[in-house]
Amino acid sequence: MPAMQADGKPGLRVGVLGAGSWGTALAAASARAHPTVLWARNPAFADQLARGRENTHYLPGIPLPAALRVTGDLDRLLAHLHGPDAEALVVLAVPMAGLDAACHAVAAGLARHGLAQASVVWACKGIDAVTGRLPHEIAADHFGALPGVSTGVLSGPSFAREVAQGLPVALTVASADPVLRDRVVCALHGGAIRVYGSDDVVGVEVGGALKNVIAIACGIGDGLSMGTNARAALITRGLAEISRLGVALGARAETFTGLTGLGDLILTATGDLSRNRQVGLAIGRGRPLDAILGDMTQVAEGVRCAPAVLALARRHGIDMPITEAVCAVLFDRVPPQEAVSRLLARDPRFEGGDR
Ligand SMILES: NC(=O)C1=CN([C@@H]2O[C@H](COP(=O)(O)OP(=O)(O)OC[C@H]3O[C@@H](n4cnc5c(N)ncnc54)[C@H](O)[C@@H]3O)[C@@H](O)[C@H]2O)C=CC1
Ligand SMILES: O=C(CO)COP(=O)(O)O
């Protein structure tokens, strides 16, 4: 793949949808060098961000850059993307459950504003909880008929809080369109952020979605005090099942050893900033799922995603024993220790294949 441009786009204009932790961190990073508008779906919250210059709910204690504009009006974000020689980049940083609606609103808005050329990239990590569709399949419903709009996915091991604090991070943007990849690099690469390119959209999406489920499994193991050997086994065998399903869906195997596969899996399975890992830890320590979710003010995508992943795997004839165990614990009231015993009781296998 050719080298990508990290500078030289004076006309780049960025709009970020979703003022949760990740959207806020991405918008703040982009605003360092490019005119950036952040959209929050709740206008009162947008107003609070714009005035208070801090996302007190999702990233408390971290000031927003002065250059970042915040709005609760999507038309203002779209109007911001206009300009002489403007190159428009829209980042969808809403949770998976909001992706369809966000794509719909942006596609309609681009048409309304006469923005025929734009790049749209999503940053959510999940698959559709009902249909099992990957994000690019949802996006294709809305942008597929717009020839000037290209799409892609941004992923990688990246806790929003660390990114917002300016700590080093490496991300990957995957798209068939090199112009989109360059725009994302221009928007974010620099300082403590590195952005790599890929054209394996399916691999990047599958890695991002499924690592959340394995992170819940690792949290459960750690909550049960199963030890670090067990955690390493779950990560490694988790990666094996992620790769199996990903390859069956058309991904390249090597993507799963990269930032958006192994990289993000290690981060989420071991880092205590992970919401998915925290759900698993609490389950392993004996808290019921309803109580855990009732207390959470942020999204843990792996919970909604796990049953859809399992259904998808079954449709493709793929064995995913760890995902199955997570679903059994979360939704079938199987005690975590019992699920571990079932995993350990599986027949011996040949590592590295289905022999
Ligand atoms: N927080 C992180 O460190 C990272 C998160 N992500 C992914 O980014 C996506 C967003 O996550 P976060 O910002 O962390 O979530 P969050 O829980 O911090 O914030 C969610 C935001 O989305 C809004 N929202 C909730 N449901 C919505 C819907 N149906 N439609 C539109 N907006 C909705 C909320 O009002 C809130 O502003 C998730 O898919 C997550 O997996 C990816 C990389 C890092
Ligand atoms: O995706 C993430 C880090 O790359 C964030 O993980 P959680 O959603 O588990 O917090």
Automatic annotation (TrEMBL):
Residues 14-177 form the Glycerol-3-phosphate dehydrogenase NAD-dependent N-terminal domain. It catalyses: sn-glycerol 3-phosphate + NADP(+) = dihydroxyacetone phosphate + NADPH + H(+); sn-glycerol 3-phosphate + NAD(+) = dihydroxyacetone phosphate + NADH + H(+). NADPH binds at residues 21-22, 41, 58, 125, 160, 275, 299, 301. Sn-glycerol 3-phosphate binds at residues 125, 156, 158, 211, 264, 274-276. Residues 200-340 form the Glycerol-3-phosphate dehydrogenase NAD-dependent C-terminal domain. PROSITE patterns: NAD_G3PDH (PS00957). The keyword Lipid metabolism applies. Pathway: Membrane lipid metabolism; glycerophospholipid metabolism. It is an enzyme of class 1 (oxidoreductase). Keywords: Cytoplasm, Lipid biosynthesis, Lipid metabolism, NAD, NADP, Nucleotide-binding, Oxidoreductase, Phospholipid biosynthesis, Phospholipid metabolism. Its main location: cytoplasm. It is found in: Cytoplasm. HAMAP family: NAD_Glyc3P_dehydrog. Catalyzes the reduction of the glycolytic intermediate dihydroxyacetone phosphate (DHAP) to sn-glycerol 3-phosphate (G3P), the key precursor for phospholipid synthesis. PANTHER family: GLYCEROL-3-PHOSPHATE DEHYDROGENASE, GLYCEROL-3-PHOSPHATE DEHYDROGENASE [NAD(+)] 2, CHLOROPLASTIC. This is Glycerol-3-phosphate dehydrogenase [NAD(P)+]. It comes from Pigmentiphaga soli.
